[in-house]
Amino acid sequence: MSCKKLYLENMDCMQVTACVIGCTARSDGSYDIETDVTPLFPEGGGQRSDIGMMNDADILHCREENGTVIHQVTSAFAVDETVEIRVNAPLRRLHTQQHTGEHILSFAYQKLFGAVNVGFHMSEDVVTIDLDRMLTPEQVAEGELYANELLWNNGEVKIYTVTAEEMQTLPLRKKNEKLTGGDIRIVEIEGGEMCTCCGTHCNMTGQVGMIKVLEHIKYKQGCRITFACGELALRWFAMENDMLRKTAAKLSVKPDGVPEALQRKEEQISAVHAVLRQKNMQLAAIYTEKLMKASAETENGPVYGGYVPVDTDAAKRIAEQLCEAEPTALAALFCDDGGRYRYFCMAGEKCEKNCRDAAKVINAALSAKGGGNPKTAQGSFEALPADGFEALLKTL
Ligand SMILES: [Zn+2]
Fold first, then answer.
1. pTM for this structure?
2. How many beta carbons lie within 10 A of that of residue 79, not counting itself?
3. Per residue in 246-259, pLDDT tens?
């Protein structure tokens, strides 16, 4: 005996008295329960599962298995026990809006541009359809408007069953060739199309509320259209409107002034960066001169360097200038680059020292991370040494 699926015939039925046929414990602590009848739609055909209640227990998910519906429930029920099954109606309505909206939008793109729906997926917050060809942004918008006009016309959504032979004679958008026997369920949208489908639908297209395309990207040979319908579209609008208004307030402009204000900010930041670069390079010249006067003499040549209040690029510039001025020298510069300390080592052309070795000494002394090659090395560290860098330079 398999479960009678009420959602196939009467999608307005949200509650039913049922008899438990089977109950199996699951490894996650919930139970798989089969009943003789259910109003809950199981996940399938792109549509998400209904959830609901079985007496006072939560129905977390429903799936179809061997033609019957298995409810995943938080409590166990005895076989032959009578239970009340209730659908979570707001979530059902939300799923239904997405599914009917999906049929209508797919129909619009096929009718207007010959783009065929080859994939449909409904997630918690968006719906996607995959079309077999790329559309231009203008075509996407035209299809969206066409689909919404079908909602405003408030046509009837008819659901009926036909035989496999009858199906062959119908002008269906999507024919499921796997369906060869039994009753085949057809969803027909007034002013639109007909299509085989097992999902739940609105009774009138107006109940979909709105179809809003959110994104359109290239996908495989065609494109993927991400959209939201009805209540989901409203949630997206509320969230994006809120974000836009907060961003506009931060920028002290009206919402439609945000792109221009951001452009201006970008230009300002670029200008400040250019000035900073210039100042850093001026500082680099000053510090090169200062550091040239104070080298740490070691067995195999001088070491120049220490802490410099400049960015990494300027520290590198100082090292280059020191090594150019004194080719036998090793330069080791330490700086603060936006909240993280960095070091940079460079060996002059005639320097006998190896920067990789110098990096190892620095890493050990400062708990730093880094490395390099014989001629240059770099790394980062967390804290400046309390006694400065003079003693460290002598050990390089
Ligand atoms: Zn469908």
1. 0.79
2. 11
3. 999 999 999 999 99
